[in-house]
Design brief:
Layout lengths: L1 E11 L5 H12 L2 E6 L5 E8 H11 L7 E10 L8 E3 L2
Parallel strand pairs: 2-5
Antiparallel strand pairs: 1-3, 1-4, 2-3
Helix pairs in contact: 1-2
Length: 91
């Protein structure tokens, strides 16, 4: 069963390879969507794909790459759009 979530990750998450690591992990899991930095200093992402793999991705977001210090991960469920054909970094 497919699911889709919108997440906002806060803490020391910019300048620590968070976006690149997120893209790598999402592609490894076969997920679709995007990730980007926000002007508030957070990282925002949408993950779409198999429900269990999306859950695994959310768990990864609580840790992030080695240099990150994640303080909070806000998760909102959304309706899957099936509108993505890859996982991208947005600027």
């Amino acid at each position: 069963m497919n699911s889709c979530v919108h997440v906002i990750i806060s803490g020391r998450v910019q300048g620590v390879w968070f976006r690149a690591s997120t893209k790598q992990k999402a592609e490894q899991l076969g997920l679709y969507g995007w990730v980007k930095n926000t002007s508030e200093g957070n990282v925002e992402a949408v993950f779409e794909g198999d429900e269990n793999l999306v859950k695994e991705m959310i768990e990864w977001c609580h840790r992030g790459p080695p240099l990150a210090k994640v303080v909070n991960v806000e998760v909102k469920n959304q309706e899957p759009t099936n509108g993505f054909d890859s996982f991208s970094v947005r600027y």
